[in-house]
Amino acid sequence: MKQFKIYQHPDGTRQAVKQGWSWPGFFFGPIWALVKKLWGIGSGLLVLAFVLSIVPPETDLGLIAAILMLVIYIACGVNGNNWREKNLVARGFDHVNSVSAANPDGAIALHLKGDNSPASSQQSV
Q: What is the layout of strands, in order, in the sheet containing 94-101?
């Protein structure tokens, strides 16, 4: 089971954000950020990835560019879910619950079900 924070918008829309490492953020970096409506981060990372990708790989600068790309993708994995949370709050979502579930849909379902037992969820303060 994974820990998720549930965010709710005043219009009733809900989003579940997994806590910890973001595998999609790590593997898909800038594209993942754009899909999650992280426009500034996604655009900046996409431009940076493009610039680094045009460096010839057989040069010393190419090795540095490859290392920087790896660092970028690791940063997306480490920070991706935190970036999502900050973006949701900036878009008017409120943190309403924390639950343990197998996936985001299950986390939202648990929240809607109102299962607030200590083993499966924690109310936010």
A: 14-18, 2-8, 94-101, 121-123
Instruction: Please enumerate in sequence order all residues whose Cβ is within 8 A of that of 66, keeping only pairs 6 or more positions apart, or say none.
Output: 52, 57
For residues 33 and 111, the answer to whether their CB atoms sit within 8 Å is no
What is this structure's pTM? 0.82
- pLDDT given at position 65: 95
3-state secondary structure 21-68: CCHHHHHHHHHHHHHCCCHHHHHHHHHHHHHHHCCCCCCHHHHHHHHH
Domains in the chain: boundaries: 2-123
The whole-number pLDDT of residue 115 equals 56
Other beta carbons less than 10 A from residue 107's beta carbon: 28
Position 72 pLDDT exceeds 90 = yes
pLDDT of residue 117: 46
Instruction: Report the C-alpha dihedral over residues 59, 65, 67, 73, rounded to 10 degrees.
Output: -150
The dihedral sign for the CA sequence 37, 41, 45, 47:
positive
Query: Is-contact 88 38, C-beta < 8 A?
Result: no
